[in-house]
Protein 1
Amino acid sequence: MPKSIVVLISGSGSNLQAIMDSIDSGRINGRISAVISNKDGVFGLERARNAGIATEVLDHKQFDSRKQFDAAMAELIDSYAADLVVLAGFMRILTPEFVRHFQGRMLNIHPSLLPKYKGLHTHQRALEAGDSQHGCTVHFVTEELDGGPLLVQGAVSIDPDDTEESLQQKVHKVEHQIYPLAVEWLCADRAKWTSEGVILDDSNLGERGFQYQQN
Ligand code: GRF
């Protein structure tokens, strides 16, 4: 049976779009049951509505605490019987209770080659460090911010004339390849996080996850 996917966003939703496209093309054995945003009026909600996907807005500012917001969010996600929760530019720090509830079935994408550059301003930090490579990572979500086990990484080279903006564009392009791939694997029960580490088919991917090569 196709898996139920719930996508959480706070913004433009280009990763959401990439996943929607991959479902349409038949690559992902799943359906997006709902797109939930903590901000109204963002473009990602429009993308979902245009595709006939249910949308929900849960505004964190309407809650007295992070804990209450996360509890309401978990309840909402559960109402869609989510097999997989996909964080796609969801700009909220999550409580341990929320993370534990969805552990093993919640993914995030982060614009760096983790464990490098957790947190914000990753492109700028990679440039300032004089790195020759940068990229993005899909990982399972744990209580540690951007710290969960890595599933797949895609690298880009940093060229001498790269700016923060050009680098961000390059990385975004790879994000749109690796996130659908990760969702495809989970929906097909090919990838999972076990006590031994992250497994894809019968291989243990090791600490850095699958190293994706752009075609
Ligand atoms: C991406 O850069 C992702 O890595 C980060 O948030 C951004 C979301 O972009 N977590 P979009 O909304 O999918 O376009």
Note: The chain is about 35% helix and 25% strand.
Protein 2
Amino acid sequence: MAGEDALFQRFGKEFKRGDVLFREGEPGKEMYVIQSGKVNITKTVRENAKILATLGAGEFFGEMSILNNKPRSAGAVVAEDAKLLVIDPKTFEAMIRGNVEIAVRLIKKLSDRLQEADEQIENLLLRDPSSRVVHYLWQAAVKRGKETPQGKLVNVNLNELHGRMGVSAQEVQEAVNKTAKARIIALVPEGVLVPDTGKMQKYLEFLEMKERFGD
Ligand code: CMP
């Protein structure tokens, strides 16, 4: 797109996988818009780095410390080679003040992010890894699942899930395999298919009972 090229000429920078864009606690000097590639938003708890979110093309980050003048709430690391617009605070503020459309999009995105953070808190309150994985997929199917003749399709990369729910990659794999074996989900190239979200909710209740009372 010509507009995107012009923006890239002015604000664009290219980054390699593994580049640290900023660390949690640093002062914020700019915000970023992703044109291509992926960026992990990370938080370190007791020396363990956890991934809060993996952001892709069209998404932005680093705006919070620019808006509230507080240190970076999380770190940002390039997960896949990326082209980013790097925008200084003055330009960012001028963009928001000068364009209601941008301001509305920003508010919508921040609301989505808050809702996702609330879902994540709910998820982390579940104790066992299987419940966390099934709960995440169930919520994603109900809230964001794409309607198909076979059920709700959740576009998800299962390799990106473990960091955000505090379980290991192996635990995600085991939970997914068990749930697929019980025919609650089906694995498809685009992600995960949920034929019946009501049945999945019952399965989740069953897992929670099992956790509380044993087999
Ligand atoms: P800032 O605090 O400047 O630096 C870290 C950035 O990570 C923050 O702005 C947000 O843009 C982004 N961020 C923080 N928490 C989350 C989250 N839970 N999900 C997605 N992005 C986040």
Note: The mean pLDDT is 91.
